[in-house]
Amino acid sequence: MAFGIYIITMKESRGVGMDWKHLNMPAVANDRLTLLIIVSIKLINSCIYLLITWYMTQAFPGKYGVSLPWYFPFTKSYWFGSNEPYHVQDATQLKNVNEVNDVIEREPKHLKTGIKIQNMSKTYNGNTFSVSNLNLNIYQKQITALLGHNGAGKLKKVDEIKLNSYICLGKTTTISILTGLFKPTGGTAFVNGFDIRTNMDNVRASLGICPQFNILFDELTVEEHLKFYCKLKRKDMSSTKLKNEIETMIEKLDLIDKRNVQSCNLSGGMKRKLSVGIALIGDSKVVILDEPTSGMDVSARRFIWDLLLVEKKYRSILISTHFMEEADILGDRIAIMADGKLQCCGSPLFLKRKFGAGYHLTIAKSGPEIKTEEVTNIVQQYISDARLESSAGIEVTYSLSDDDTKLFEPLLQRLEDDHKLPISNYGISVTTMEEVFLKVGEYAKNKIESITHSINPKEYVQNHLNVKNQGCLLLFQQLYALISKKILYSMRSPFLTMSQLTIPFFVLNMTMLSLRAIPRLKESPRLHMSLSQFDTPFVKYYYDTNSRQLADKYEKVLEDNIIATNRIQGFEYGTINPLIIGLDIVKTDITTYNYDFMVSSVISSDGMGNHTILALFNNQAYHTPSISLKLVDEAYIRYKYNLTDISVTVTNHPLPMTATENRMFSVLSAQTQFEVMQGLILALSFLAGSFAVLAVKERITKGKHLQRLSGVRASVFWLSYFITDYTIYLVSSFLMVLAFIIHNEEGLSNENQPFYLSVGFIIHGLAILPCVYALSFVFTTPSTAYARLCLYVLVIGVATFITDQITSVKELGLLDKNRILKPIFGLFVPVYDLGKIGKNLITNFEGNRICQKYSNACEMDSPPEQILACCKEKCGNNCIPFEKNYFSLDEPGIGIYALYLLASSLFYIIILALIEMNLTRTLENWINYVKFKFTYVLKPKKNFGNQIDFPDNDVVAENQRIIKLDPTKDGQINSLIVRNLKKKYGDFVAVDGISYCVEKGECFGMLGVNGAGKTTTFKMITGDESITSGEIFVNRLSIKKNLREAQQEMGYCPQFDAMLDDLTGRETLTMYSRLRGIKESDIESQIEELSHLLYFEMHVDKLVKEYSGGNKRKLSTAISITIENKFGNGYTLLIRVSPSEEVATLDGGSIRKATKDGLRQNLESVQQFVQEKFPSSILKAIHNNLLHYTIENTINWQVKCSQIFGAIEKARANLQIEDYSVCQTNLEQIFLSFARQQREEEKLNNQQNHIINS
Fold this sequence. Notes:
Layout: H1 2-13, H2 35-59, H3 76-80, E1 113-124, E2 128-139, E3 142-148, E4 154-155, H4 170-178, E5 186-191, E6 194-195, H5 200-205, E7 207-210, H6 222-233, H7 239-253, H8 268-280, E8 286-290, H9 298-311, E9 316-320, H10 324-330, E10 333-338, E11 341-346, H11 348-355, E12 359-365, H12 372-382, E13 387-392, E14 395-400, H13 408-417, E15 423-430, H14 433-439, H15 442-452, H16 457-464, H17 471-491, H18 494-517, E16 527-528, E17 538-543, H19 548-560, E18 564-569, H20 583-588, H21 590-595, E19 597-605, E20 611-617, H22 624-641, E21 651-652, H23 659-672, H24 675-690, H25 693-700, H26 703-709, H27 714-742, H28 753-775, H29 782-807, H30 815-828, H31 830-851, H32 895-916, H33 919-938, H34 953-963, H35 967-970, E22 974-985, E23 988-999, H36 1014-1022, E24 1029-1034, E25 1037-1038, H37 1043-1047, H38 1065-1076, H39 1080-1093, H40 1109-1121, E26 1130-1137, E27 1144-1147, E28 1150-1153, H41 1155-1173, E29 1177-1183, E30 1186-1192, H42 1201-1211, E31 1217-1224, H43 1227-1253
Parallel strand pairs: 3-9, 3-10, 7-8, 8-9, 17-18, 17-19
Antiparallel strand pairs: 1-2, 1-5, 2-4, 5-6, 10-11, 12-14, 12-15, 13-14, 16-21, 19-20, 22-23, 22-24, 24-25, 26-30, 26-31, 27-28, 29-30
């Protein structure tokens, strides 16, 4: 590319320009390189790289995608297709998809199939089953929820080895196969009628996908995303219809205000909305949603639910989720996988009836002195089959069978009306999908077994976590844990390790090899001058009538050199102007003039035997003056001596350098040769950038914060980094010094030079590592940190090095500026110091080698002039620079730069300490506080009229109680006290004066919509954010005053998983156990019990990056362990009407189905019944034959739970109600009411603010 630009520039500068006819012409006449050659090379490179890309994409698609065999280009089937049938098991092995058994509900026959999975299997390594013989139908106009336990795939090996090998997620693998990421091992699936084995392109055309994690373009807006994916799906859609489709989808997603906002500026919930919209847009007939509402708050989740319930009318929707309520509400049918197989499938009520425990009756005793047996007797008087599930404190829970619903009315009526009973309240709830899910598959068995093992979490914590190391032993254990983490991470990050060890060594070797290829000033070979150097030389010359014989000789010389000529005769002596020679050629063809017209001559005579020959040349080519003169001389000799075959040879052969010139050139090379040091800086840039990768990753993922919460001091944390990184740095430095020795680099590999260079590397490492650690806080992604730090070290290092070289030249008069810049560069740019150390070593070595033999001569009063430059006291301004003591503080010694490196190390350590002390954040908060106070005083108070913003009475009473608490005394009872906590970001109030306390042994829940301040509150409690005002006490320790001690009292499970993907679960738990001070002898047993307690023991030895989302949450919970309810005023009613088996009627000799009309009449009867019996009921949704009602209690109308059961039981037979369930208002519904109220208040405030501002 550089040569091409050079050729174009040369053409333009000469006025020729670059066009098609000049494409194959060089920039210089006697050059061989043309732009055509460069363009041809680029085209060949493009073809080669395209072929490589095509091959790699097909044969090695990476983690996702179906790979072809390495020899696929040589197979006939790839180019012409395959006629071989795909392997499907024989009919005897195929299951009937519509087969009905006790756990598979009868499938609807009136609906079309959107996805049909037939006996599909997926194995890994031939013996690891992730999906095994899966048969499942996903119907149109329905939402099918696919559930699977974490690690739903089952491991089956011939020798039945341990289960802790790789286990894939069955449901995730199923979705991956349907979307074309994986290829099924056996069986197949049809999506919208197309086989995924042979018609994947058609499958994708009708498929909409919402992946588990957002895959969005940061730079594209919401509207641009929808437009992009809509055009991909519907290439034939008109612009008008496309615009309408986008507008409709934006309205459905409620993203009208965000349509022009880039995706990187959207909240997490909005990103999930956009991902769902991308899946739906473009009229996708089949939509697959993988955990679409993950990360959303309850209200946003409900919004997506409502959207999907509307959109399912036009599509087949398959949804994967971890929220059981989501599957319960959305799923027309729910399929649960375990062990890679389909365990059950049916509607929510069908599954609840098959696997559920019926109802749960929770009774609150009037006091702790009331015996549980007394309450049990009361319940069993009415329902003898009632089973006691649990008894904790004053709460007692019973399990009631679905078959006993007719007995609920008298029992509940007595609980409600008989105030003499020893109870204060009760609640009733129906079996949830969560209970059904836990009872399906091996995980339910694991849970039952774990209960029988009687693992008591409280006893576990007391036995294992109270015996800890303290003091110096704890510090050494923490340091060992962190160093082990770094070593494991390096071992499992080959690219990172390569960039730290091999890349610097390789770059430095390539630099020195390339420098060896550059011609150096030396005795050059002879060069013969001739026009044969040019492609098609052309000579045009002039002569008068008196010079014809000499012109003939000139013509003969040109013919002997096979040169085309053009002789012009007929001008008077002394009348021709050499400046106009060739002007006619320029007018017709400037290219010929520039590239072919190299020499010319004018031959004239005065008629008296005196000849004048003017030799002309084209100065755009090399050596033309001597060539033109050679031709003229040869012609004249032949004419003068009447010779015919004599020739003149002209050779350019530079004289050899003298010994003095050799010595001076050697010194000059040492002073100006900084190419090697630039190569060293380039090598160091890769090394330095690699040290920031893990630091940035741990900070962004909050892994560093979680380790600090485990009791790690900042000094210990960074010391572990320094020890491991410095060790790697020393190894890499040794390899770079070895490279200089291998290449015998002058001044760096001779005598003691490697020792001095090694000292420079050692001291440089002390400065560059703290520098990189401090700069790592600037970046938010590891890859960006690596790339930009490499660029920073390279650009800043080379720029400062060149600046120093330029300002050190005496003739430029910049020495004063050099003395100012040198300490600045030395303090802030460690790589500059190492570059100067290397250069000074070369300079000093050359100077000492030249002058050491003349040291005695310098003692003479008048030393010889040729050695005067070696006499430092007598040479004046013409000295050869050298110092006998290499560590001298004077140039070219390296001592001053070693001191700069030590000062730089101390400087960046101080910067790192200030960052860890959060002084910058404290300063920012103080400025914001002053700004807030200032604006608050000057800003007029606004009157919002009748706006009411008073907290609940319970909240006011709790605040007053907490204010009166004494943390030093009451802290023995209350583990956590939060008092009037506030957090402001500028003018935005994130947390506004909240107060609460958590007693020991109590589980306290915080609810709130996205942006309510939950995460900010947790960050302040854990010390991740500073507190604007208020106080937090953890076990009597103040977060403000005793942060580190308070953090050691906490176990924290953050919102997002703060773990290293390249560590296994066991290694992660081992590290955090050591950080907590758990004795080494107890760690292994602790890990075993933790993994068993949280049901992920089969995954504990897998890498974290292979964990599912659920198992990652379990691991985060395990890391954290290594330390009055009121029922609402309403009920939720769920009614299922019988499917009314298809009724056949005889009409005119034909059978007609009356199913739909009969069902419609039946639904209308049920709706009329509910409206009459419960006037405050509201119909929320109708799913096929399922009615969902909410019955609200009002001031004028009250209904009891017993009345609902009684009314439905009496009308059940007449209304053909097959099944129903009743549950009271749950906590989520209460939360949603608060969220709606908050949104209404915010809307009212905005309207009032707008009025006031107007």
